[in-house]
Design brief:
Layout: H1 2-25, E1 47-48, E2 67-72, H2 77-92, E3 97-102, H3 106-116, E4 122-126, H4 130-134, E5 142-146, E6 152-157, H5 162-177
Parallel strand pairs: 2-3, 3-4
Antiparallel strand pairs: 1-4, 2-5, 5-6
Organism: Rhodospira trueperi
Family: Belongs to the thioredoxin family. DsbE subfamily.
Protein name: Cytochrome c biogenesis protein CcmG, thiol:disulfide interchange protein DsbE
């Protein structure tokens, strides 16, 4: 009897782990919940990029109107993928688009923005990566929709595509902008 239990126990454990694995594979990693949703933007103080006007230095600059806040880096391949879309979003003028450069050197960020175009109204430079941690950033790019009161309403993980803009972000911004 004891031998049967000894053989059955590992088999049962493997079956349970396999069940968790199968359920986990069916979830979309871009839909990770954020503990910051419906909460004010975390307090922060940022340095601006040297020689670039329009520094994002703190959360008060994210109040007054619906805003997009994009975390990016010159080292980030996916950031380059979404960059053309960010320029289109900026051209539409629906909402201010601010950026926070992290895990980067200021001169690399400036060179990257100079080479690929600068879609941002304001840019802050996260010298310590502490701000990225406060926002729960898991990688780049990540973009937040922040309402006029400075409250985080949505977090998008990964590059913004035309489809994401048309089906998710744009309608949300329009809805939040309606009095």
């Amino acid at each position: 009897m004891m031998r049967r239990i000894v053989y059955f126990l590992p088999l049962a454990l493997v079956a349970v782990l396999l069940g968790f694995f199968i359920v986990g594979l069916q979830k979309d990693p871009r839909k990770l919940p954020s503990v910051l949703l419906d909460r004010p933007v975390p307090a922060f103080t940022l340095a601006g990029l040297p020689g670039r006007e329009g520094a994002l230095t703190g959360p008060d600059e994210l109040k007054g109107q619906v805003t997009l806040l994009n975390f990016f880096g010159s080292w980030c391949v996916a950031c380059l993928q979404e960059h053309a879309m960010l320029k289109r979003i900026r051209a539409e003028g629906l909402a201010p688009l601010h950026g926070i450069a992290f895990k980067d050197q200021p001169e690399d960020t400036l060179r990257w923005l100079g080479r690929h175009g600068d879609p941002y109204d304001r840019v802050g430079y996260d010298t310590t990566n502490r701000i990225a941690i406060e926002f729960g950033i898991t990688g780049a790019p990540e973009t937040f929709v922040i309402d006029a009161d400075g409250v985080i309403q949505y977090k998008h993980i990964g590059p913004i595509t035309a489809q994401v803009w048309a089906e998710t972000l744009r309608p949300l911004i329009e809805d939040l902008s309606t009095p």
